[in-house]
Amino acid sequence: MAEILRFIIPSALGIILFLVPVPQDGTLNTILGIIIDWAKETFKPFLTVAAMVLVVLSAVITLYASLVRPNFIVKSQFFKDLFVTRPLWITSRVLGAVFFVMIYFKIGPEAIWSMDTGGTPALVLAPSLLVIFSVLAAAVSLLTDFGLMEYIGTLARPLMHPLFKLPGRSAIDCLASWLGSNSVGVVITTRLHDAGYYSDREASIISISFSVISVAYIYVMADFVGLPHMYFQILISIYAVCFILAVLTPRIWPFKNIPDTYSGRSGQRIPEKEIPAGYSLKDWALTSAVERAKREGLNTILKTCYQTFSFLIVSTMPLVVSWGTIVLIIATYTPVFQWISLPFAWLLELVKIPEAYKVAPAFVLAYADQFLAAVIGATCSTVAGKFMCACISATGIIYMTEIGVLILNSSIPLNFWKLTAIYFVRAVLSVFLLAPFVFLFC
Fold first, then answer.
1. Closest listed residue to residue 318, CA positions, set 56, 46, 40
2. Residue 368's domain spans which residues?
């Protein structure tokens, strides 16, 4: 019984924190989301400075480690992987630090520190991510290290493989994204890919298909475009379209060409165990979960906590600031996105969406940042136009100020060009898949 409780107690706590929806201010959130919201408000006066200090430290230590290669870093595989990195990531971290200082102190051209450009990733996203990463790092071990993944994975195996070409354990990533945060889903997927639980193809599919924005953030999008009363219609439309895309995308390019190799940092493969003779599906799920939980303890939680936090802060936050600033400068001061959006205007006209030329840029700008699609939606005058903008902010999934950076900085083999291709495939399909919901609800 004690061994079963070793699985049940931390796993139940993880489920309660990450996955159980609770009412909050007329919508749904999770306890983890409520904790994050509380922490954002409580520590708001200190978050921006703390984020800036951490981004600058990340850049300084990365430069020192890459140039000097001190023994205390080189001899630790974790710190070596974290700080001794490729020139692109070194440049991105340094640029993130420089941009952050310029934005915070309003140094240099306004095109960099304006709230329309660098101010958003540095002063809005980075402080928010600092809280999310801190809370996530402290709690993610409960969800992944004490048998819950094995239990749900075994039970979900008959459904996940035929529908999505994925192992059953990926169900936990899906739930974490949908009910918690898409960043949480990508972080969990990256961690499990590095450990050898997912192949390159599986991790690619999971990170792109299941990293949907949370139920709480969908309400934010609905409210921002001016349709808070249509929150549930927007939520239903987004999740229905994302489900269809999750079934379709593993069967088309480029996912079908990604090999089932294992290139995670551990260099190993941990396959799902076959169900032995004499075990039912439920019995084997419980047995697998208990076996995993027996090997873990408080040390596992502490190790996962500091490694997850360090990885997210050092590797991700500087890139959100550097790449986010560059993308938003292009979006704000050049007509590039307007030009690229013309084919979407034609497609939107084809399916009879009002304000097609006004809505079209949302389908391109959502790739830069999902919030930009909502900004376009707020300027639309028709309910249908606002509805489409709110939905594409989620159905495209990839946005470069956060999810794209998380994936690019992981061992998942999706480069910038593959992510771009995947996003636009999803965006084109979203035009046709969302159209029936527009006519149904608007």
1. 56
2. 1-442
